[in-house]
Amino acid sequence: MSDTILLEYQGEFSKGWKLDDVVRMVETIPPMPQAARKTLELVEDPNSTPYEIAGIMARDPALVSTVMRAANSAALGRSETVVALEEAILVVGLGSIKSIVLGMTLKKWNKSFGPTEKLIWEKSLGTAAAAYVLATFLGKTYQDTARLCGLLHNLGQIVMLSLPDIRAKYPEVFAYIREHGVSFVEAERAVIGLTHPLVGAMVGRKWQLPFSICNTILRYDEPFEGIDNTQDEQIALTKLAAELSLCAGLGCPEGHPLFCSSLRPVALALGFEESTLMADQAVLARQTKVLYATEAVAYN
Q1: Which residues, at least 6 apart from 64, have a Cβ–Cβ distance to it below 8 Å?
Q2: Which CATH number fits domain 3-30+109-299: 3.40.50.800, 3.40.50.10540, 3.40.50.920, 1.10.3210.10?
Q3: pTM of the model
Q4: 17 and 193 in contact (C-beta within 8 Å)?
Q5: Separation of CA 243 from chain center
Q6: CB 153 within 8 A of CB 220
Q7: Residue 195 phi, psi dihedral angles, 5° rounding
Q8: Tell me: the pLDDT tens digits for 192-235?
Q9: Neighbouring C-alpha atoms within 13 Å toward the C-beta of 109
């Protein structure tokens, strides 16, 4: 399933890693949990009903409680609490259900959930919130897809941290970031030898996620070369969302560079006005923090 992604990959390896090594590593990653996979299938089926979706979700109590918390958070101000899962699905919306299902899958991926995992999880939710805020601000019609790409942009990091040999090197990754002031991708390549965008994209294909999302995961950290089509726009928005999250202080390790000013070409290409860019960025960073705080509650 990852062959088409491999054709897109333009990155480099170090520390003796080769592409075949990454392929073998990804082959050892378990498939998506059955309840999550089946729920996503039903959400994509226009003929499915909330009752059918609820029936599948009920197999996973943690997923049910997350959806219920999200529904009651979204329903603040209503006179009655949401108590039925079918109603919760309608309140949250099918687009958000996809993010919650995948979010819970990622949250449960690592049995150890120490400071490193917490920071990477914050980076996932922060970028998801930033992507939704950006898409809404820019008047895009794909807010839910933008949020999903934001949530999954560092899927590879979550997977890599589940592998003991790689996780043991992550303190060195943080130290490299502090010492050299580089991004996660640069530090991972220097310390580990491979980077999370490729791993995440390959796992996404293994989980049968849409190619456009996997391609966004793969390329969000690549240098910006303009927007020629909808795929380019999706990648650019995810790139900007990842940096907006860091600028908002969400998932940002000590020493990680903040590229807010250098992302001006990306922002302008997406539709920002240059005269108000800095002010808009400050407002959107605040909105991102608020949305992150609201949505993070569902996963606690």
Answers
A1: 57, 58, 85
A2: 1.10.3210.10
A3: 0.90
A4: yes
A5: 13
A6: yes
A7: -125, 160
A8: 999 999 999 999 988 989 999 999 999 999 989 999 999 999 99
A9: 27
